[in-house]
Amino acid sequence: MNLQTLSYITLLIYFHHFSANRDIIYYISLYTISWRYAMYFLFIRIANSTLDLPWALAELGEQVKVYGAAEFNPVYPPAAEEFDKLDAFMSEHHFDALISYLFVPEISDLCQKHNLPYIGWVYDSPLSTLFHPTVRNPCNYLFIFDRAEYEYMKCMDIPHLYYLPLGVNLSRTGALNITAEDETNFNCDISFIGNLYEYNSYNRFIRLFPAEVAAELKLYLLDNLCNWHKAKPWPRISRRTSEYMAQTFGNDVLNHGHMDLDLFLGITFLSKKLAEMDRITVLNTLAQQFKVDLYTRSDPSFLSNIQVHPAVSYYSSMNKIFYLSRINLNITQPSIETGLPQRILDIMGSGGFCLSNYQEEIDDYFIIGKEIEVFRDLEELKEKTSYYLTHEEERLQIAINGYRRIREDFSYLHQLKKLLNTVKEDLA
After folding, report:
1. Which DSSP category does 372 fall into?
2. Are residues 273 and 346 in the same domain?
3. DSSP states of 30-46 as a string?
């Protein structure tokens, strides 16, 4: 498409998820008029990601086609023939750019071949494929949500690397239809939606390690458990321990790609285990005094006195729970050093009150105690939980203020405009 062509576009997005009683299909038809210099994007679907990005592109007046032949997993890509199909599809159409969440090295190589910009908005930290050599392809435009990760990667000589926090699709969260049944089912004092990460490499292999290796790993976990007073850099294990693991498991099993082995093993064996320990400890601590509801796919065996529910749909029930819960917990994965995880934004963008572990970038964007609340340790967690369960007016005002802040600074339209302006200015 000529970038100066005015065009009318319609995007039909199908959201399909399973309900306890029936399959529900949401049809969302977006009809907009594109502005001058609109681009024609091919959106590549990433496994377990949303369609909020093409939705927002359409709302901004861009032309977008969702590639429906396959979903792609950056770490475990599909068979080569799927990329051959995508290659042929790109040859048959005339796109101005490809866009996806995360970063898929094979897609970057295809874009390099077709001389097309490849835009990746990264919501994982760290994303192992960002250490792949293709990250330096000139076609890439990569947007990182965690400032500490962005600063770390700036030293890697990546051509188009930018810092951009995540966003919320307010067109979707604002379309909630809260029923009387919802108010009964999702009326929670304290809720947490998420997994416990019990299936981690540490739990799987710790019994195989000699005492000195196990002691090193356990010491890190004990030093950092439920301690959010400052950012946790990505954990590195000692050279002695990494060499032992490499000899024990072999490189094929470790599959660390191009990431430094000490760093890869530190994140693999420690970050997910610390996430499990943080979440179980927070939930059990609160459950000693308060009513806690957990929505999860995880095994709740290590939890006590907690109301455990099945996992819920990201597209419907999750946002209702955020809106109807008195306190919504966010417990950030430790591998996110300073950034705002999607969960914080989703809670606040649904009009919910968010009580989160402290992250440095919260101070950069929100007023703590006015738009969001934080805890830095278990004592502060218990104090603030008790306070806000008994001070409804203050809690509701914080939820309202937080929602206003999201509308002003973190809507998908707001963030995507920044992204597109950055790319278009560079391409001009």
Report:
1. B
2. yes
3. EEEEPPTT--EEEEEEE
What whole-number distance in Å separates Cα of residue 332 and Cα of residue 149?
15
Are residues 51 and 73 both part of a single domain?
Answer: yes
Whether residues 139 and 93 fall in one domain = yes
Considering the domain architecture, whether residues 278 and 417 belong to the same structural domain is answered as no
- Asked if 402 contacts 353 with a C-beta cutoff of 8 angstroms, the reply is yes
* pTM beyond 0.70, yes or no: yes
Dihedral of the alpha carbons of 320, 325, 326, 332, in degrees to the nearest 10: -100
User: Which residue, 220, 231, 223, 216, is CA-closest to 149?
Assistant: 231
Task: Report CA dihedral (267, 268, 274, 276) to the nearest 10 degrees.
Answer: 140
Name 50's Cβ contacts closer than 8 Å, sequence gap at least 6. 169, 314, 315
Q: Which of 349, 353, 323, 366 is nearest to 411 (CA)?
A: 349
* Averaged pLDDT, groups of 10, the chain, 428 residues long: 35 36 33 58 96 97 96 88 96 98 97 98 94 96 98 93 98 91 97 97 92 94 97 90 82 63 89 98 99 98 97 93 99 98 98 98 99 99 99 99 98 98 95
Q: Are the beta carbons of 147 and 339 closer than 8 angstroms?
A: yes
pLDDT of res. 256:
55
Give residue 17's domain range: 8-167+411-427
The CATH number linked to 272 is 3.40.50.2000
